[in-house]
Amino acid sequence: MALTLKDMVALLDQELQPGQFKDYCPNGIQVDASVSPDAPIKKIVTGVTACQALIDKAIELKADALLVHHGYFWRGEESVITGIKRRRIESLLANNISLIAYHLPLDAHPVMGNNAELARLMEWTSAGGMEPGAKLPVGNWGTTRSELSLASLGQEITDKLGREPLLISGGNHAIKTIAWCTGAAQSMIDKALALGVDAFVSGEISESTVHFARENGIHYVSAGHHATERYGVQALARWLHNETGIEHTFVDIDSPV
Hints:
Elements: E1 3-4, H1 5-16, E2 28-31, E3 40-41, E4 43-49, H2 52-60, E5 65-70, H3 83-94, E6 98-101, H4 104-108, H5 114-122, E7 125-129, E8 140-148, H6 150-161, E9 166-168, E10 175-181, H7 189-195, E11 199-202, H8 207-216, E12 219-222, H9 225-228, H10 232-244, E13 247-250
Parallel strand pairs: 4-5, 4-13, 5-6, 10-11, 11-12
Antiparallel strand pairs: 1-3, 2-6, 7-8, 8-10, 9-12
Helix pairs in contact: 2-3
């Protein structure tokens, strides 16, 4: 089933519902580099962030489009197209590779989202969203597969994500209930505390997160922004392939953050 860029994004929009989110960037098509409105998308490359290294790999693989979690045009950034932004966009346009990005919609999807995929990988059971009343919550809370110490949880994350997490102890208690939100969600630790869980896991950490965890008696784990967000875009690409037959290749450009 050959789709045009417009048709493919319409299918993705229908599944991810970007209009339901107040996001920090545009979701869907960010750069239209198709040679014509009727040009088919036969092959896509997926990745976490649309950095130059990922674009170069997409060029090498002769992709028609790049599907990512972190694209361009973030709220508050310079609007002029200069420097690395100019070079990236120039590379896309010169090689007829369109850029499609989904940020919060890909975090929140209940089946293919980053948080859903992290829970699947870690064998955590979700009991609901971290934001009570939210139709499409970005973070989740629930239970671990078995009762764990903080050190044991850290080792499981290391084994499954391939990255050693930063562990901040909130006391001597074991972990059975847990909340999680991938990426730069460290500020959501107050929501985890309100839920009464034993531990909170996010991607990034801030200096203040350490003291919040220690003084409020909640374990905190910084498992890596990139490490926690590699899985949603892969799940989305597999779904897209099953729906349309489009060929896809995931390229992991590592980031220590």
